[in-house]
Design goal:
The chain is an alpha/beta fold. The strands form 2 sheets. It has a 3-stranded mixed β-sheet with strand order 2-1-3, covered by helices on one side. Strands 4-5 form a two-stranded parallel sheet. It contains 6 helices and 5 strands, in the order αββαβαβαααβ. The radius of gyration is 32 Å and the shape is elongated. The protein is about 45% helix and about 10% strand. Pfam families: HHH_3, SLBB. This is Helix-hairpin-helix domain-containing protein.
């Protein structure tokens, strides 16, 4: 019987060692898993975006900001806008993306002139103003449907007013052929 007790004791010690090792390994694994999300959050928090801010701002240039900031933050980082800026035609709430250009447009005409032209997108000759026309008015143009008129307005909001009628070709979906059909029917 003493031999049986020794064997049982050795078996019990081995079982406790295996159980202890298993528990220790599980504990270490849980600690590692708990630390991983914190490391990932720190890495994400340090991401930056670099944008170029130009137009009617005090100090145009490159600005590096943290990811998730808005156009207004980039404009403020270069000293803000100057008195000739047209802040009604730039989306200050848009999220910044790395490598983008933020152009603050020049205000054309006084407030009275803008309010008169904002009422209609057509001039006396019946031409449609690309800078003031509504989606419905833009759809009167040949080859411009609801999707294309929405793209024109989206482009106008992101980049400011069109400086000449050829700028409308920068809108995705408007090429030379479509431009030729509508160039005599539009103005800025």
């Amino acid at each position: 019987m003493p031999m049986f007790k020794k064997s049982l004791l050795i078996l019990l010690v081995l079982a406790l060692a295996v159980l202890g090792g298993t528990m220790y390994g599980y504990y270490r694994e849980q600690q590692t898993i708990a630390l991983d999300p914190a490391v990932i959050e720190q890495a994400e928090a340090k991401r930056t975006v670099t944008v170029y801010v130009c137009g009617e701002v005090k100090k145009p240039g490159l600005v590096t900001l943290t990811e998730g900031q808005r156009v207004a933050d980039a404009v403020n980082a270069v000293g803000g806008v100057i008195e000739t800026a047209d802040i009604d035609h730039i989306n200050m709430a848009a999220l910044l993306e790395d490598g983008m250009q933020v152009r603050v447009p020049l205000r054309i005409g006084g407030a009275e002139e803008r309010s008169k032209s904002a009422g209609t997108g057509k001039n006396a000759e019946g031409q449609i103003n690309l800078n003031t026309a509504t989606e419905k008015e833009l759809q009167e143009l040949p080859g411009i449907g609801p999707a294309m008129s929405a793209r024109i307005i989206e482009y106008r909001e992101e980049h400011g007013d069109f400086q000449n009628i050829e700028d409308v070709k920068q809108v995705r979906g408007i090429g030379n052929a479509k431009f030729e059909k509508l160039k005599d029917k539009v103005t800025i």
